[in-house]
Amino acid sequence: MRGYESGLCAEFVEVIHRQAAGRRVSAVRVRVGARHAVTAETFRQAFCRAARGTAAQDAAVHLVVSPVTIDCDGCGRRTESMDPPLRTPARARAAAGAAGPAPGPSLAELDELDELDELDGAYVCPRCAGDRVTVSGGDELALEAVWFRTQAR
Ligand SMILES: [Zn+2]
User: Fold this and answer.
1) For the segment 82-104, what is each residue's pLDDT rounded down to a tens digit?
2) Which Pfam families match (predicted)?
3) In Å, how far from its chain's centre is CA 67?
């Protein structure tokens, strides 16, 4: 498992545990921007691990991914993408030209992507594969909702 998701989850779990104030949590909803390159499955696994022994243990995790907006200087199009960032423009161009969803970065590449700043330029226009793009949004990281179990006293 990657350290990145574990770190994210540890922070979320800490906040949830504090909000819970002794109650048990039944479910949480977390919003994560596509730029964080987090997948639902790895996030859930990391969350479960981080939540062990806290109020959030056994809580259901709903992950909502927000898209990035890509404004292209080349063709003038604005598109939204749910894809994770690609490490290099070459990779991104290859993905834009390929049919089907873009492949995510490899694990080795992701290990280097700890800082969001490094992700700038990691998108290309899905229309023309140009790399002169302005990327906005998709960097959200928020705990949207927490549901608590009703307790019989
Ligand atoms: Zn374009």
Assistant:
1) 888 875 555 555 666 654 444 55
2) HypA (PF01155)
3) 10
